[in-house]
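Methods — Computational structure assignment.
A single polypeptide chain was analysed. Its primary sequence is given first, followed by the predicted tertiary structure written as structure tokens.
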Amino acid sequence: PLDAGPYTFLWVDALTQKVREGGRIINVHALVAVGVNADGHREILGLDVATTEDGAGWLAFLRSLVARGLSGVQLVVSDAHAGLVDAIGAVLPGASWQRCRTHYARNLLSQVPKSAQPWVATLLRTVFEQADTDAVQAQMTHVLDALQAKFPKAATHLDAAQHDLPAFAGFPRELWRQIWSNNPQERLNKEIRRRTDVVGIFPDRTAVIRLVGAVLAEQNDEWTEARRYMGLDLLAKAHLHPIESETDDTTLPTELTA
């Protein structure tokens, strides 16, 4: 049972694994959920194996978490997995979605020539260097205008994502670095892949659950003994006032350079 909530922040990810089924080798997706519990510690919330990484798989996974007690989610952080946003809206009404800034940046850079990628990467980074919510939104507009002038295709790409990338700005600024990407999951993912790469091809889905589940259980024990991932005061503020942010008047918005 997930009885240590509310789980204000939720990270979800999917890792592809190969299994033998029906005399052939197929790809399946290990869906993993991590949350920050009411005590400020990270906690492994769930693991499932889905045939396809689509809306149906995410819908079933999120519903299983809610059935076990998942509650109080204000923000879900992930890559742009197919069908996930719709599943969040259906199962976790009121929760926002933060699209991982790191993975999105790679997608955006693929829309411009290689010679322009450093400039575009720096431009996008300025959105995340602002002091408060209003400055983040204003800088997003500036970045879109700058891209439109030189790379309209990239501007269109960013325009479609502009409401998902700055979701972090609706929470206390002290938490921004922890919630604007899926990077906190990368170390966990690397450890899972290190173990699963040794196996290569699993004999069945149960074997995936056993091995990945063992890695996750080990990590969960480590997190339980470690220091809090988020302070209780900030966590309470984020849970009670998710759309309010504090302004630091000593930090001015980063201006674009030509």
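Note: The first strand starts at residue 9 and ends at 21.
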